[in-house]
Amino acid sequence: MTKPATLFAPSNAPLTLAVLVLPQASILEVASTLDPMRSANRHLGTQAYRWRILTPDGAPVPLTCGIELPSTGTLEQAGQADALVVIAGFKQAEVATRPLIAALRRAAGRYTMIGGIDAGPWVLARAGLLNGYRATVHWEDFEDLAAAHPEIDVAPDRFVIDRNRFTAGGAAPAADLMLHLIASRHGAALARQVAASFITTPHAGSEPQMQISRQRVDPRLANAIARIESQLDSPEPIAELARNLGLSSRRLETLFRTTLNQSPAAYALGLRLASARRMITDTHHPLAEVALRTGFSSQSAFSRAFQRAFGHTPSSLRNHK
Q1: Spatial distance between the Cα atoms of 311 and 242, rounded to a whole number of angstroms
Q2: Selecting from 2.60.120.10, 3.30.160.250, 3.40.50.2300, 1.10.10.60, what CATH number does the domain 219-319 have?
């Protein structure tokens, strides 16, 4: 009997996931993928969801928190499973070696669906497994993935399901994806029970990764922050930002200082410098490009601002990473 093209459909058949966890992934990403299934099994009273943890060499894999996650074997030893999920975090370009990429290509045909969490989509893209698909990745990597792989339609969504591929942008979106899987297979009521177990509220996949809850923050401040985040490479003058939001500069200043204890300019600069620091530590982009992509008019201006914020220059951080 031919397997269905998607696992996101009503079914009482047991579902097995092969979960490939790469070194320097986050324990939160792993838990967000596995624990909703564990909770669903508890509520159902049966093992409807099963999984096995795989690692590149079959040995326990070190996570970012320092804990080593036990493994049941390598990708070649995965056995029968319905879907393969790749979970990756920091240093994916180093830990996803050429042999591992080749193994992914060989294994792809064994699974009904293939997915990636956080930087996992990067790994799948390098294996050519997202060519022609719509996909997402952690918001810090949107631009880099889209530039490196123009054959992929990179979206800023929390999670994306496109035919026999699924991707999620990080730990919280991974939980949203798994809740959607549970709702698709066993109904919305069970998904709500699982979400309630973790005292969380599921989000739709189409929602943006970067957002602030309007229930907790003044919507005008949320709009301002969203606008700042969307244009780190070409920041607006604060007066123009306020005008585009229909506010006075004074009112915008008050909103930021009351809620965040910072001026709008300081908040925007902090976001730009944090983004720059991530690019320096996690990519090989030239420092001049990092400066340009974080909205600085020159590398010297970037270096001065960076040193004032962090106590060392961008070049010293790059040399010691």
Answers
A1: 31
A2: 1.10.10.60
